[in-house]
Amino acid sequence: MPGPGLVAHVLVSKFKDHLPLHRLSGIYARHGVQLRTSTLSDWVAAGADTLQPLAREVAQRALASHVLQSDDTHLKVLDREHPNGLKRGHMWVYLGDTTWAAFVYTPDWKEEGPLSFLDKREGWLLVDGYKGYDKLFTRQGATAVEVGCWSHARRYFVEALDAGDTRAALPLSLIGRLFEVEREADEQQVEETERLRRRDTLSRAVTEQLGRWMAEVYNREPPKSPLARACRYAINQWKSLTRFMEDARLPLHNNASELRLREIAVGRKNYLFAGSDAGAERAACVYTLVATCVLAGVEPWAYLADVLEKLAQGWPQRRLEELLPPMWKAARAAASQTPSTSSAAT
């Protein structure tokens, strides 16, 4: 029977340090501890199952956030019924106020995946142009409000420039100016009202100039050219792309959620695939807590070792909030500042 510290080490090694279990088994063997990969796999499953209530709490807080960002990446999953023995699943991240990172696995890329999770979302939702989100914004009584990503829009113009069309340099320069306005506001740590004022006076003029330029170029451009593709994406997303001027807390881009997905990208290069849909769902659970630890500035192993022990000892469900990474960190900081009884008596 493993202790919580060992289970936490296995989870962090696999989902933060990207070590496949067979490689981790070899590391343990070099230290004189013989642990089969199947045993480690069982521990991963048990640990993830124990942590599921906390992952659900993170997901609820992400959904309730003022600004919710979402993106996805693929993940290979073993599937005996698939002709190739492998299928392409998807891992979605839902990042709430850059504090709560909820990962959700779906066995395919169909719209039902994000629609199911985001069904009751109210407020800002920052996403790319994936069509699977569209029903959230167009259905009757829609409560989610689409916000576009300027990094995605910029990539299409970069592709046009790389293809040899030097005209793409102008929109890239204008988009760069939008990022510069945000960078200056960040460096100067301006308040929200000042950031919104700058967006209204500086960024609005830039977007209007870009909009006029695209309207002129797009109508004269062959539909299949890289530049036409870039303009078409930005024009189709224009309303959502300019929403950042409505709320100072809206980011200009979706880079923060993409950054969280890098953990998946690095991991799949090492462990190559998930063993099943259930295994991928457990991976999503652990990724949720590890990523939220990182955002909170919490060391993942210390956190998982502590909460696994508390949960195994019957921590009350009504107090799960206290075990979420930001709250856990605050409680530990408060405890470290409280003088012990013996020192107080001295």
From TrEMBL:
Residues 1-281 form the Transposase IS66 central domain. Residues 288-325 form the Transposase IS66 C-terminal domain. InterPro entries: IS66_C, Transposase-related, Transposase_IS66_central. It holds the Pfam family DDE_Tnp_IS66_C. It comes from the Bacteria. NCBIfam families: transpos_IS66. This is IS66 family transposase. It comes from Archangium minus.
